[in-house]
Amino acid sequence: MAANEDAAQEFEPKKKPPTEDEKRKKKIMPGSLMKALMRPGGGDAGPSDGDQIIYHCTIRTLDGVLVESTRSDYGGKGTPIRHVLGKSKMLLGLLEGIPTMLKGEVAMFKMKHQLHYGEDDCPISAPDGFPKEDELHFEIELIDFFKAKVVTDDLGVVKKVVQEGQGWESPREPYEVKAWISAKTVSGKLIMSHTEGEPYLFTFGKSELPKGLEMAIGTMVREEKAVIYVTTQYLTESPLMPVIEDYDEVHFEVELVHFIQVRDMLGDGRLIKRRIHDGKGDFPMDCPLHDSLLRVHYKGTVLNEEKKVFYDTRVDNDGQPLEFSSGEGLVPEGFEMSVRLMLPGEIALVRCPPDYAYDKFPRPSNVPEGAHIQWEIELLSFETPKDWTGLDFKTIMNEAESIRNTGNKLFKEGKYELAKAKYEKLLREFNHINPQDDEEGKIFADTRNLLHLNVAACHLKLGECKKSIETCNKVLDANPVHVKGLYRRGMAYMTAGDFEEARADFKMMMKVDKSTESDATAALQKLKQKEQEVEKKARKQFKGLFDKKPGEIAEAKGDADGDQITSDLKDEVDGDSDETSFEDSHEAPPEAPRNSWFSLFWPSGRRLFESLGLNRCAIL
């Protein structure tokens, strides 16, 4: 029985800790707050947490002497108070009393001093000369209340949704936005209006609206209508309102008509995608984010004085669209990046810099070198890869082999990032495959190891030695005598300059598999050559360092070959080397020397490289 009670307590939902307002309300004693109805309101319920309340307040002593008021008739500014229940700092008596009111109601609250400014630790400071130790009458008119979207934490910008919009996407920098906008003072005086002719057009993030208004529009969706309350600190000058008078608050009525998605793809303003015709579906869920078979029409223009069109699928391809598979480097990088963020049926204008257009991609003969390009792209349709759910093991492995072969092709073409993406995608999919017997388990394990080693080869080609070694370890941790894993890791160690670790891996190869002796011997010979090369260069750079007499200071000086060392190493990292039977349809990883020489003074080649300032793989 006790065990059942303990279990029941364990699974009881934890109670939320009380809010500061709830703690304050516990101070209210019977008789300290009295309410008298002066004019009934309408509706069935009063305001609750999260509602914005708008009310007038007039405070008098019990003798009827006016203390202060928001009403202009009694010397106030005529501006009602605007608070958000649960968010704003309020007097305790009003915090308790206003939620009992209905819209349009007028009520008189008689408060002990502990429920207004006389409260201990009152969150609001009393005005100068305020009788905070007196019992007072607070006459409240609840003008309106509604659910509010708090845009700024200080409640300087609050939004009231009048009509819900469509979709979920909101404008952001640097979208182009069209909206009907009008502005009024708190008393209802019209300040400005863009509600006739054409909607107001502005670029989001360019300070073309008052700051608070733009912040609130950034929370709206297409076709939404809203009233936006903006206080003075957020009323900045802008083309919409060039002159800001001494307004305490402005109410903007806004209808978000439309916005054009404009995306800064690189974040530096060089590659810009501008949607000129909406597609079908929801962004980004219905975009070809993953590798897919895509069908597009496009028109390419060189952005020079002539603005010459160099290719148009509708003209130069007999009206047939371009069909290509993403993730395989078949189109310029900027082109593919943009298409991945399009919806079917969408048309977009893409302005692309040379390095994401044709400087690193086969360049059409009529496109000059270094040209900035504009593509007008229409995404007609796309097909996503086959879902493996429900497929038998053999079919899945055939699909995997096809994708791996695509990765191998990309690797041989020098597109190492794309090849790595293919292998890593397969490895993620492999997390959901469950072999049913020992034979399937062996095939699965062998294929997964092969993929890890292919990823390691890509890292090595990209100069990421540490990642290459870590990826090899995923194979060798499970099978320390995996020959191909030892070879690949040895190559990575050699590239990183960890020669002793490389030597250990190559020797282990021969120990566990005598048939690899010729390959391991060749690798050890190359390792020895690399050590000698680095030792020679280091001796040359440190020439004379230890020829000084005791007490003399010798300076290690670089020479004409100093910069070339770095260049040589980089060339070896990026270049090709001999292929072996361990490369799994890949070229062998490159080798770049790093030194373990001078062990008398420097215990490892790693430290020598640091002292030389050489450029090597990021192994540390």
Automatic annotation (TrEMBL):
InterPro entries named among the record's database cross-references: FKBP4/5/8-like, PPIase_dom_sf, PPIase_FKBP_dom, TPR-like_helical_dom_sf, TPR_rpt
Basic and acidic residues bias locations: 11-23
Top-level class of the enzyme under EC nomenclature: isomerase
Enzyme Commission number(s) from the entry: 5.2.1.8
Keyword flag DNA damage: no
TPR repeats: 483-516
Swiss-Prot/TrEMBL catalytic activity: [protein]-peptidylproline (omega=180) = [protein]-peptidylproline (omega=0)
Keywords for the protein's UniProt record, in alphabetical order: Isomerase, Repeat, Rotamase, TPR repeat
PROSITE patterns the record matches: FKBP_PPIASE (PS50059), TPR (PS50005)
GO MF annotation: an example: peptidyl-prolyl cis-trans isomerase activity
Region (Disordered): 1-29, 553-596
Signal sequence, start to end: none
Residue ranges occupied by any PPIase FKBP-type domain in the UniProt entry: 50-146, 174-260, 291-383
Biased composition, class Acidic residues, residue ranges: 571-582
Family to which this protein belongs: Belongs to the FKBP-type PPIase family.
Name of this protein: peptidylprolyl isomerase
